[in-house]
Specification:
Blueprint (H helix, E strand, L loop, with lengths): L5 H12 L1 H22 L6 H28 L5 H6 L1 H22 L2 H16 L5 H4 L2 H26 L3 H8 L2 H23 L7 H35 L4 H9 L1
Length: 255
C-alpha cells in the first residue's frame, strides 16, 4: 500500500531533479505573460500593427503549447523536439482546457443574475425569505469547482498525448481516487496558498518595505504555482507508469 503523500513526494523529487525544466518554466511562463501584456498594448491602427498583433498572438499560443507539452513529455523521457512533433495530439485537449477557463470567466459575469434567480427560487420553495447576498457565494464556488474538475480531467489526456500514451489509459488514470487526492493537495499548494500570499498585505509603514513585500510575495506565489504545475505533470506520469490496480483489472475482466 502506498504511504500517504508518497506519490507527491516522489513527483516533487523528480521535479527538483529536473532543475533545467523548472528554470525553463519559471522564465518561459514569465516571458509568455510579458508577451500577452505586450499584445494587449498593441494599438491596431494600421495593417502593420494588425500583422504584428497576429504574429505575437501566434507566438504566444504556440510558445505556451510547446512549453507545457514539453513538460508533460519530459516526465515520460520524451525530448522537447519530440514533444513539438506531438503538438497536434496535445492541441485538442489544450484548446478544451482553455475553452473551459474562458467559459467559466464569461459565466462568472452572470453571477449576480443567477444569485437573484436562486434566491427567488429558494424563497418560493422554502417559504422563507432568502436574499441574493446569502446565496451569492454558491454559484461562483460551484462553477470554479466544476471548472477545476474539468481541467483536471483533461490534464491526463494532454499528458498521455504528449507522452505517447492513449486516451483510454488517461481516462482510467483520471478515474483513480489516488489521482484526485494528489490534485487536492496540489490545488491547495498551487492555487489556494498563492492566492493567500497575494492578498495578504503586511502592515509596513515605509514604501520601500511594501515594495519588497509585494515582490517577495508575488515571486513566492509564482514559484509555488510553477512547482505545483510541474509536480502535477510528474504525478500523472508516475501514476500512468504504475500497473492497473487489481480492482480495476477485476472490473475489466468481469466486463
Amino acid at each position: 500500500m502506498t504511504a500517504p503523500l508518497e506519490v507527491e513526494r516522489r513527483a516533487l523529487r523528480e521535479v527538483w531533479r529536473r532543475k533545467k525544466l523548472f528554470a525553463a518554466h519559471l522564465v518561459g511562463n514569465a516571458a509568455l505573460l510579458g508577451g500577452v501584456y505586450a499584445w494587449l498594448g498593441i494599438a491596431e491602427a494600421n495593417w502593420l500593427a494588425v500583422a504584428l498583433s497576429a504574429a505575437l498572438a501566434l507566438l504566444v499560443v504556440f510558445g505556451a503549447l510547446w512549453l507545457h507539452a514539453a513538460a508533460w513529455a519530459a516526465f515520460y523521457g520524451v525530448s522537447p523536439w519530440e514533444a513539438w512533433r506531438r503538438l497536434p495530439r496535445v492541441l485538442p485537449w489544450a484548446a478544451l482546457a482553455v475553452a473551459v477557463v474562458l467559459g467559466g470567466l464569461w459565466l462568472a459575469g452572470y453571477a449576480p443574475r443567477i444569485a437573484a434567480w436562486l434566491a427567488s427560487s429558494l424563497t418560493l420553495r422554502l417559504r422563507l425569505p432568502v436574499s441574493p447576498r446569502q446565496v451569492d457565494w454558491v454559484f461562483p464556488a460551484l462553477w470554479r469547482g466544476l471548472g477545476c474538475v474539468a481541467v483536471l480531467i483533461l490534464a491526463p489526456l494532454a499528458s498521455q498525448a504528449a507522452g505517447g500514451g492513449s486516451a483510454r489509459a488517461a481516462l482510467r488514470l483520471a478515474a483513480r481516487p489516488r489521482y484526485w487526492l494528489a490534485c487536492a493537495v496540489l490545488v491547495l499548494a498551487g492555487l489556494y496558498l498563492p492566492g493567500r500570499l497575494i492578498h495578504w498585505v503586511p502592515a509596513f509603514e515605509s514604501l520601500s518595505a511594501r515594495a519588497v513585500s509585494v515582490a517577495f510575495r508575488f515571486g513566492l506565489a509564482y514559484a509555488l504555482v510553477v512547482t505545483a504545475w510541474l509536480t502535477l505533470a510528474a504525478v500523472i506520469a508516475q501514476l500512468a507508469a504504475e500497473p492497473v490496480p487489481r480492482g480495476d483489472e477485476d472490473a475489466k475482466a468481469n466486463a
